[in-house]
């Protein structure tokens, strides 16, 4: 109950400031979630950090929804450690041209989280100081967490289903 | 001339920087990761971290496995405290499914998680001792990690990659031997830990090597999203167990130790104190268990909790549930959930998106080692090589958690 009023206050302040840029509001398991656009994401993050004391960047990652207009969702989790509130922000960007401004200007800790997201999903963070692959080798050529890439190489001949009773 | 800031002329052969590959397999890094360091004598000028040597694509694999098969993947994140990862994952799924655990299960979980925390901190603190030249402390306390593993063995049959528990509770109740071993551990470990502290805490050499080395301010730590003992050593009292209690941690009386300067000595002290607090929690949990009804080791949720084998063979409902769970056809809400637990190294988060399929649509691990480690190269600049080594030990970077 208390959580909901807190979330509503945050949402009211966000809507005041960013108006129609705050969309898709939901509250799964008490965690305030909303979507915004990539032109204001850095303003949203700075506003949350400086004015609503979401001082801590918990995580940055992405989700791939193939076949949609804006098929890649970049997901930010922030944390207000004093009031013990978490918040989730999603930015849906186009799969063909996955670019978004970097959050390293707001938190330095975003550096590796964004590199990981770039490595696995190919999201290009504009203005990132060192946007290289981090977990995979440099000449991998693909961004493996995208849904079109199967778990195993379909061309392998040593792993036929019949050998495994499948 | 200050030897810390030597001044060279242009043609001095000593003015050249030396490139040193620290890792990927170097005994001092205690794990598979590489740092390419530019050295000026013994002083590090700059460094570049390369990670990913044991990247196993767990997030991709998790998209192809039903929930219960993801537990063994989490084992291999922070393999020094696998049970915390296992239970963190179970609790994430339970949150998704809105399952309420019986108190007894919560307390049993707390016992196992705190034992793992002790095992994790034993490794880190003894390794700091080892890397500052005190092998005795390492050998001395390490046998107690063995005793903890024996307790895990009694509860789940495995030691390192435990796969402990199930979604919905434990696979079996703790037997008497397990409780006896926990009691024995609670009796013997404090003595050894006290002796370990006597060896290091006021040791002149140890203090000289660690105090004031690799100091980190609160602001920098928060800027780099540090969590766990590293963050607490800088003076921020953030502990997921307190700020966002899970598994009935709110029922326990314990303190969150914080440091002041964030240096290696403070990190050591914070971890040591956390071991004492963990012991306190385990003792309280054992007392609380006495008042709980005996024999309850899982929640009453047959549609999500894997039934015992003899029931599968003799009981039709159990057979159906078994089939559905194994095939990943459980009725989980289409939703997304973020759940965090306090791992050995900090906030271990699970971000799970379920779309109603057999497997998660997306599962992301927020791995504390990965987030903490990115500060290592920037903070090493200007540090002595030998200080950087103990700095790395005190960050307790576990390669499995770093790379996922």
Overall description:
In chain A, 23% of the residues lie in helices and 25% in strands. Chain A is an alpha/beta fold. The radius of gyration of chain A is 19 Å and the shape is elongated. Chain B has a three-stranded antiparallel beta sheet. Chain B has a three-stranded antiparallel beta sheet with strand order 6-7-8. Chain B has a two-stranded antiparallel ribbon with strand order 2-3. In chain B, α4 packs antiparallel against α5. The radius of gyration of chain B is 23 Å and the shape is globular. At the A-B interface, β3 and α3 of A face α1, β6, β7, β8 and α14 of B.
List the defining traits of the structure above.
A: 166 residues; alpha/beta; Beta Polymerase, domain 2; 5-stranded mixed beta sheet; 7 strands; B: 404 residues; mainly alpha; 3-stranded antiparallel beta sheet; globular
* Assembly state of the chains shown: heterodimer
**Structural class of the helix and strand makeup of chain A?**
alpha/beta
Helical region count of chain A?
A: 3
Low-confidence stretches of chain A: none
The helix tally of chain B amounts to: 17
CATH superfamily of chain A: NADH:ubiquinone oxidoreductase Nqo5 subunit
Main sheet makeup of chain A: 5 strands, mixed
Head-to-tail CA distance between termini of chain A:
49 Å
Order of helices and strands of chain A: HEEHEEEEHE
Shape, per Cα inertia axes of chain B: globular
Placed side by side, the strands forming the largest sheet of chain B appear as: 1-4-5
The largest contact between protein chains, plus residue counts on each side, is: A-B, 34 and 40 residues
Return the structural class of chain B. Answer: mainly alpha
Based on Cα principal axes, name the global outline of chain A: elongated
Largest sheet of chain B: 3 strands, antiparallel
Please name the CATH architecture of chain A. Answer: 2-Layer Sandwich
Beta-strand content of chain B: 5-15%
């Amino acid at each position: 109950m208390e959580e909901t009023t807190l979330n509503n206050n945050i949402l009211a302040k966000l809507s005041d400031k960013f108006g129609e840029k705050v969309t898709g509001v939901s509250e799964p398991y008490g965690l305030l979630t909303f979507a915004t656009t990539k032109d204001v994401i850095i303003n949203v993050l700075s506003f949350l950090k400086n004015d609503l004391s979401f001082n801590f960047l918990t995580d940055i990652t992405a989700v791939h929804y193939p076949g949609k207009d804006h098929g890649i969702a970049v997901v930010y989790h922030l944390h207000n450690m004093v009031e013990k509130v978490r918040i989730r922000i999603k930015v849906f960007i186009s799969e063909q041209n996955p670019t978004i401004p970097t959050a390293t200007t707001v938190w330095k800790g975003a550096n590796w989280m964004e590199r990981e997201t770039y490595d696995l999903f190919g999201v290009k963070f504009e203005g990132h100081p060192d946007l290289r692959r981090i977990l995979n080798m440099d000449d991998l050529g693909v961004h493996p967490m995208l849904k079109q890439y199967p778990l195993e190489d379909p061309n392998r001949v040593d792993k036929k289903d019949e050998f495994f009773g499948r | 001339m200050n030897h810390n800031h030597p001044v060279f002329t242009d043609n001095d052969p000593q003015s050249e920087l030396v490139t040193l590959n620290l890792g990927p397999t170097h005994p001092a890094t205690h794990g598979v990761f590489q740092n390419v360091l530019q050295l000026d004598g013994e002083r590090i000028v700059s460094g570049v971290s390369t990670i990913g040597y044991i990247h196993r694509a767990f997030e991709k694999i998790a998209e192809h496995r039903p929930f219960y098969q993801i537990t063994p993947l989490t084992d291999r994140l922070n393999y020094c405290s696998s049970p915390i990862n296992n239970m963190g994952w179970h609790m994430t799924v339970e949150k998704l499914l809105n399952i309420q655990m019986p108190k007894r299960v919560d307390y049993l979980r707390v016992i196992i998680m705190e034992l793992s925390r002790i095992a994790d901190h034993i490794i880190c603190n003894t390794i700091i001792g080892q890397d500052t030249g005190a092998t005795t402390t390492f050998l001395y306390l390490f046998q107690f990690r063995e005793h903890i593993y024996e307790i895990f063995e009694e509860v789940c049959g495995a030691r390192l990659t435990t796969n402990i528990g199930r979604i919905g509770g434990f696979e079996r109740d703790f037997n008497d031997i397990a409780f006896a071993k926990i009691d024995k551990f609670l009796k013997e470990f404090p003595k050894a830990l006290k002796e370990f502290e006597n060896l290091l805490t006021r040791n002149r050499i140890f203090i000289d090597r660690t105090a004031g080395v690799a100091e980190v301010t609160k602001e920098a730590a928060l800027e780099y999203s540090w969590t766990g003992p590293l963050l607490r050593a800088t003076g921020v009292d953030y502990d997921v167990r307190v700020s966002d209690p899970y598994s009935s941690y709110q029922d326990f009386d314990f303190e969150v130790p914080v440091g002041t300067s964030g240096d290696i000595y403070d990190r050591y002290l914070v971890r040591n104190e956390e071991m004492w607090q963990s012991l306190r929690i385990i003792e309280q949990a054992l007392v609380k268990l006495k008042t709980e009804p005996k024999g309850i080791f899982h929640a009453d949720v047959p549609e999500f909790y894997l039934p015992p084998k003899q029931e599968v063979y003799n009981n039709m409902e159990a057979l159906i549930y078994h089939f559905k769970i194994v095939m990943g056809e459980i009725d989980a809400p289409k939703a997304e959930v973020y759940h965090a637990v306090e791992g050995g190294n900090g906030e271990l988060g699970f971000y799970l998106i379920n779309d109603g399929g057999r497997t998660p649509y997306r599962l992301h691990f927020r791995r504390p080692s990965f987030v903490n480690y990115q500060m290592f190269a920037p903070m090493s600049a200007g540090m002595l090589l030998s200080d950087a080594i103990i700095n790395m030990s005190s960050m307790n970077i576990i390669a499995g958690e770093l790379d996922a």
